[in-house]
Amino acid sequence: MTLTEFHIYYAQTYRYYAVYVLMVLLSFYFFYALFKRRRRSDAVLYLLFTALAVYTHAHGVFAIASQGLCFLVMMVLRPDWRTRRAFFTLVGVQLVLLILIAPALWQYFLRDFLATQPIASVVGAVPDSEVGMSWLQVPSIGSIARALVRFLFFEWYYLNAFTILTAVLFVFAATALYAARSGASNWREAIRELPSDIAARVRSHLAEHMLTFFWCVGMIMLPWVLSFLVMPMFFDRYVLGAAPALYLLLAVAAVGIRRIIPTKLIATGFVILLLPGLYAFYAYPDNENWRSLASYVSEHAGLDDAIVILTSDVHLRQTYEAFQWYSPHEPAVCELYEDKLDDPETLAGLSACLEGRERAWLVGLRWMGDIERLAAAGRSPDLHEFFARFQGSQWRLEADADRPSFYLLGMYIYEKE
Question: What letter does residue 287 receive in the DSSP assignment?
């Protein structure tokens, strides 16, 4: 997890995901300890970390569901899981957990499900508008594959033929050397004994393997299936809580074949595959450079200039808050929703912001507005054309500081004629 770009990116960009993954990991650990050691302290810690996982992210509920499915399967496979004590322990803990997370479940249900149903407008629980996860699309089989790849390599294009060939050749050559040093007959014997070794390991650690399997598969497949039955809720980072289980399953597989390919060789080959992605991740910018943009505006904008922060329904106040966080300068600052350029309230707010100003700085993400809706309404989706006609064509573009150092951010200076 310390070397995969996906975890590094979301630990830096959406920082609560690092907390969420930790809470899920601790939830599964103390769920296992609860039935392995049967201590009251394990029950308390399980309740604590599971509730925190749910309050950190809505998909924490799928950790609970995955644990429940694992328990049901283990009741069928192992007699020691069919005891009354085990059953009532699970029921009691889940009832307490339900009370702890009830406010979160109500909030998630109202915001992400009721808002899409006709009953919402009837009971007046939520406004009659798109909210919650309405921006998500129905996933496909490829969505699962993409999530698994991103858990390991962040993006498909971080893998290239040269790196894959290098890793494969290294593992092949090192394994050949290992087989020669340990003896070809011993190495072939290890291959023949591999199925029985795997079966023995699974039988001796059945609970651990089943819990890890349901952790990985359940937290990925449950939101994927429900995306078709209820509403879209599958997204790469949403199922990030399953990533530690995937790594554990891969580690188990590596340990299982260690007599054929030493674990150190597999780990080294995996690191070779990660190196190009790690280099690209740290060598090239990936997030908006708000610090440089805010510093530039603060140094060059006058106290009488208007600062217009461009945003949209997708980003809401994120761009405004990002600029304010890094900007020590406080001229007149207002917001302009790029996907509402035809909205009278938006136009009135912009007019009020620019009143008495001779120069305006438009800063924010490069065009992210709803182009199709504006075009259907007969309005140009081009921001510069909008300003060229705004307030009787009083404003002209004086400078375009869309420089690479700002990365993904644009800055446009308009002056009143």
Answer: S
* C-alpha separations of 324 from 179, 345, 355, 407 in Å: 61, 23, 21, 18
| pLDDT tens digits along 278-292 | 887 777 777 778 888
Provide φ and ψ at 306, rounded to 5°.
Answer: -95, 135
Query: Which of helix, strand or coil describes residue 15?
Result: coil
Q: Which amino acid is at 197?
A: D
Q: What is the pTM of this model?
A: 0.77
Angle among Cα 264, 270, 271 to the nearest 5 degrees reads 90
9-51: per-residue pLDDT in tens?
A: 888 878 889 999 999 999 999 999 998 888 889 999 999 999 9
**Whole-angstrom distance, CA of residue 130 vs CA of residue 373:** 15
CB 17 within 8 A of CB 240: yes
Q: Where are the alpha helices (DSSP H) in 156-286?
A: 161-182, 184-204, 206-229, 243-256, 263-283
The terminus-to-terminus CA distance of the chain in angstroms comes to 56
Cβ atoms of 60 and 54 closer than 8 Å? yes
What single string gives the DSSP state of each residue in 132-185? TTTTPPPP-HHHHHHHHHHHHHSSGGG--HHHHHHHHHHHHHHHHHHHHHH-HH
- Rg value, the chain, Cα: 27
Highest-pLDDT range among 11-15, 16-20, 371-375, 392-396: 16-20
Q: Following CA atoms 363, 366, 370, 375 in sequence, which dihedral angle do they give, to the nearest 10 degrees?
A: 100
CA angle 141, 147, 149 (to 5 degrees): 105
Q: Which two structure tokens, joined as six digits, stand for 394?
A: 């009083």
Which residues on adjacent β-strands are paired with residue 413?
A: 361, 399
How many of the other CB atoms lie within 10 Å of CB of 174?
A: 17
Neighbours of 87 (CB within 10 A): 13
- How long, in residues, is the chain? 417
DSSP helix/strand/coil, 333: strand
> CA 316, 108, 100, 43: dihedral to nearest 10 degrees?
-100
For the four alpha carbons of 133, 51, 4 and 32, in that order, the dihedral sign comes to negative
User: Residue 175: which of 272, 275, 273, 259 has the closest Cα?
Assistant: 259
| Residue 75 CA, distance from chain mean position | 33
Amino acid at 179: A
